[in-house]
Amino acid sequence: MYQILEKKTLNANTKLMVIEAPHVARKAEPGQFIILRVTEDGERIPLTIAEYDREKGTITIIFQEVGATTMALGQLNVGDCLHDFVGPLGKASELEGLKKVAVVGGGLGCAIAYPQAKKLHEMGCEVDLIAGFRNKDIIILEDEMKAASTNLYVVTDDGSNGRKALVTEVLKELIEAGNQYDAVIAIGPMIMMKFVAETTRPYGIKTIVSMNTIMVDGTGMCGGCRLTVGGETKFACVDGPDFDGHLVDFDGSMRRSAMYKAQEKASVERHECNLMKQEVK
Amino acid sequence: MPNMNPKKMPMPEQDPNVRNKNFDEVTLGYTPEMAVEEAQRCLNCKHKPCISGCPVQVKIPEFIALVAESKFLEAAAKIKETSALPAVCGRVCPQETQCEQKCVRGIKGEPVAIGRLERFVADYAREHGEEKPVQPAANGHKCAIVGAGPAGLTCAGDLARMGYQVTVFEALHTAGGVLMYGIPEFRLPKAIVQKEIDTLKDLGVEFVLNFVVGRSETIDELFADGYEAIFVGSGAGLPTFIGVPGENANGVYSANEYLTRINLMKAYRDGADTPILHAHKVAVVGGGNVAMDAARCAKRMGAEEVYIVYRRSEKELPARLEEIHHAKEEGIIFKFLTAPLEITADENYNVTGMKCQQMELGEPDESGRRRPVPVPGSEFTLDLDCVIAAIGTSPNPLIRTTTPGLDTNRKGCIVADEEHGITSKDGVFAGGDAVTGAATVILAMGAGKRAAAAMDEYIKNKK
Ligand SMILES: Cc1cc2nc3c(=O)[nH]c(=O)nc-3n(C[C@H](O)[C@H](O)[C@H](O)COP(=O)(O)OP(=O)(O)OC[C@H]3O[C@@H](n4cnc5c(N)ncnc54)[C@H](O)[C@@H]3O)c2cc1C
Ligand SMILES: Cc1cc2nc3c(=O)[nH]c(=O)nc-3n(C[C@H](O)[C@H](O)[C@H](O)COP(=O)(O)OP(=O)(O)OC[C@H]3O[C@@H](n4cnc5c(N)ncnc54)[C@H](O)[C@@H]3O)c2cc1C
Ligand code: SF4
Ligand code: SF4
Ligand code: FES
């Protein structure tokens, strides 16, 4: 059940895994996600479906080790099994009919945006991919992104690779230069998506963002993932994760994301402590 | 000579001030001596009024007579003839509006403690080597069940006993539905539910967990996989929020989320990875079993003050009497005739309180209950750091939006006939909360049972 078939380290804290999950692979579409549990008592965490292979029955996930569960996941190796793996969840991205699109990825968001870029590219859509990273050490999937885009613009916060710029600066220049986008797809930290939406708003370009809220069940049962879109409450797991960036209340969502900061930190400390104990043994 | 004591044999329970700090079961159950003594209160009435109050027609006087003779295993078998989950129903049925309401002993005193006896018998049988069920001979037909709550589990068990090959598809990582993720450990120990699920596995029922029908596969795809009839028991899991300003602040939960974090994800255990707010002052909005469970969990998670905020009066509280009584004993503060107006939060968006309004009861509404109307100028604020909405749930839209031909009503409930669970879509049957909206465990079981018979009929007629 849910065996890890492949594992790759993309950079210091980002890993890729290919998981055997035929039920999920059969129906997966770009924009959808899975929820997994590493162990029997573990937390349920959502991760985007980075790639799927219907024939082999596999799902690829790319994750950043940010807390207890993602760190525990990173400890597993080829041959190990995940306890639970459910999906595909959420609505697939609506990509039909798009002719020219700017995809904006921030950090790990690039991995999440990659399946969309790839599908659009395969559909014959012109894809300008703007990928922003903090520095050259954390750039991931550069070759894949190149292959999935018409033009790739890599920028870093410190100029250590590509241009020293913010993704929003590049996006604005491209728009100002006369590029007519049917849509802008932004995936990354909420603050980045907020500023991308602010950048496109004056031009009236449709802007789709992917809301990575805190989730529990992922089926619409708890409401923990709720956010405000156009004044209405929506559940990110069933109504999303894609939403119209011009309607999302990002400030509200960012505050909700911070809800468990202290407890998450304690959980990491507990796990690190357990890992150390294991190593000492 | 029957025991003419007007009162029920009391059931031992943990001291309120001890139990409101732990998640162990509140009530401890009868000893065999207590059960026999209580069973002797039954008059074995000829016309058996009690049975008419039970949605699954448990043979009440017969099983109680066996208890009176200390034939506990035989009593358990008698109940199992009509009810699949007696250890569960004995604990959570609203007996005061069902079997016990009809008991003649209730006219001049307290009714026979039918629920407590049912629980005792089921627990006794479980602990004293109830025989493992034998897997019946296969009849070569396949049925699918969507959702592993009491409706789905009952339907699965009955079909398996008839020889069908049954697969249960469940969205969560654990089977049991509300029995696992909603009702807390202190009211329904999870080991008991697990035991019932294991019994179904012994009968040959296959469980496919982590499978969301509508996403992983649709109903039509399940038919294409060779299932000849499908029962939908997907419950009513979509939470309703209160609809007042401030509802998305940090510290506002749906009861589903709060209870799921605690029960399913075990946030009550030290060292659990699933975070939960350890609040000090909590208000639960609502007055049903769900509200009582959320409030009592909040108390056990360490809250100093826990309020139940309910807009009608005590008389209208829909929760089981026993839960209301236990909640009061445990120090839950009831604010009747009170309606929320607004949830207030600080600059970090953490809950600071809830503005409320006093209500009074006016003219009766469509439901026949007197409608609460606001008292002008009665606003006041409760200081809080957590608000839990327990004002109802409705069926999840996932199945109705992915199953063409399946009719639902205005409230999103699947339309199915009560007698057989037949829906507008050929081969699809439905029952439980998915059809009725949030109701009770025993009604869900009854619906699962009737649907199993109808599915058997349907498949036989098709041949
Ligand atoms: C639809 C969706 C798709 C996602 N896709 C990916 C992905 O492809 N790759 C990836 O690395 N991450 C993805 N995430 C985020 C991922 O779920 C979180 O990083 C993970 O849950 C953190 O768990 P943890 O126990 O390791 O860390 P924690 O200690 O729980 O948290 C560490 C940090 O992550 C944030 N976080 C915690 N839980 C969640 C949660 N359930 N959802 C979002 N953020 C959370 C916290 O606010 C905190 O800043 C996605 C989230 C969503 C909702
Ligand atoms: C906190 C709480 C306390 C309660 N207390 C009592 C009580 O004391 N007494 C009483 O009689 N009743 C009580 N109830 C009500 C009772 O639990 C429900 O009426 C009963 O569980 C309904 O059973 P069901 O089988 O219809 O649905 P559920 O128990 O809701 O089970 C439905 C199952 O279907 C699964 N599912 C949903 N959608 C899908 C899908 N698309 N694919 C696969 N699986 C799916 C769900 O995950 C769930 O496991 C309580 C309810 C709650 C929430
Ligand atoms: S199943 Fe419920 S209603 Fe029926 S006899 Fe048992 S406790 Fe009473
Ligand atoms: S009505 Fe009461 S006293 Fe009469 S048979 Fe039923 S349980 Fe016994
Ligand atoms: S994660 Fe529970 S409703 Fe979305």
TrEMBL record, chain A:
**Mind listing the UniProt keywords for this protein, alphabetically?**
2Fe-2S, FAD, Flavoprotein, Iron, Iron-sulfur, Metal-binding
**InterPro entries in alphabetical order:** Cbr1-like_FAD-bd_dom (IPR008333), Cyt_c3_hydrogenase_gsu (IPR012165), Dihydroorotate_DH_Fe-S-bd (IPR019480), FAD-bd_FR_type (IPR017927), FNR_nucleotide-bd (IPR039261), PyrK_electron_transfer (IPR050353), Riboflavin_synthase-like_b-brl (IPR017938)
Residues that hold FAD according to the record? 62-64
Q: Which cofactor does it need?
A: [2Fe-2S] cluster; FAD
Q: Which GO terms describe its molecular function?
A: 2 iron, 2 sulfur cluster binding; flavin adenine dinucleotide binding; metal ion binding; oxidoreductase activity
| Positions that bind [2Fe-2S] cluster | 222, 225, 237
This entry's comment on the bound cofactor is:
Binds 1 [2Fe-2S] cluster per subunit.
- Entry's Gene Ontology BP terms: pyrimidine nucleotide biosynthetic process
Enumerate the spans annotated as FAD-binding FR-type domain: 1-95
What's one Pfam family here? Answer: DHODB_Fe-S_bind
Protein name according to UniProt: Sulfide/dihydroorotate dehydrogenase-like FAD/NAD-binding protein
TrEMBL record, chain B:
Q: Which residues form the Dihydroprymidine dehydrogenase domain?
A: 19-129
Provide the FAD/NAD(P)-binding domain boundaries: 142-448
Q: Does the keyword Oxidoreductase apply?
A: yes
Keywords assigned = Oxidoreductase
Q: E.C. number, please?
A: 1.4.1.13
Pfam families per the record? Answer: Fer4_20, Pyr_redox_2
Q: What ranges does the record list as Low complexity composition bias?
A: 1-12
Question: Do the record's keywords include Cell cycle?
Answer: no
Q: Region labeled Disordered — which residues? A: 1-20
Q: Could you tell me what this protein is called?
A: NADPH-dependent glutamate synthase
